[in-house]
Amino acid sequence: xxxxxxxxxxxxxxxxxxxxxxxxxxxxxxxxxxxxxxxxxxxxxxxxxxxxxxxxxxxxxxxxxxxxxxxxxxxxxxxxxxxxxxxxxxxxxxxxxxxxxxxxxxxxxxxxxxxxxxxxxxxxxxxxxxxxxxxxxxxxxxxxxxxxxxxxxxxxxxxxxxxxxxxxxxxxxxxxxxxxxxxxxxxxxxxxxxxx
Length: 196
Known about the structure:
- It is built from 7 helices and 4 strands.
- Strands 2-1-3-4 form a 4-stranded parallel β-sheet.
- It is globular and about 40 Å long.
- Strand 1 (48-52), helix 2 and strand 2 form a beta-alpha-beta unit.
- It is of the alpha/beta class.
- It has a single domain, classed as Uracil-DNA Glycosylase, subunit E, CATH 3.40.470.
- Helix 1 packs antiparallel against helix 4 (102-119) and helix 2 (63-74) runs parallel beside helix 7.
């Protein structure tokens, strides 16, 4: 088991180096979820991907990053692979500017394809509706190969919305319940794949 994890980590480190070289050549800023408080982040090897849209321009760890990592650790999901569909920071640009750059997006989808081939996930958890719809747009048959489950994004700005989420606590309570359901779904998928 550990040998396989080490192989996956090596492949992820090679991919990260490839992405960093791309960023240097194109003068882009990229970012990867780091290992933090026992959660492996981008170097997570479990066959579940937690997928965001793109890196924010914030500083890690924010209060919300801390809460997300704590929730993952508490649920035994510390080896989950955490990544973004688009590796490039939007900085002061909007994500729509990134999406309009077809060459950039082609490269980003190639990078994510590499991650899929390395991780071979049973489940892809998309954080937020925009991430979910773009994943399905760029990978049209993704639902045929993987179980894709959308959850609320941990950076959800509840204070700009008139929804039922009235605080950061409400958002994380919802994410907590969603992760519990996903963990049960994962157990069920693992039993089916293992013949149990």
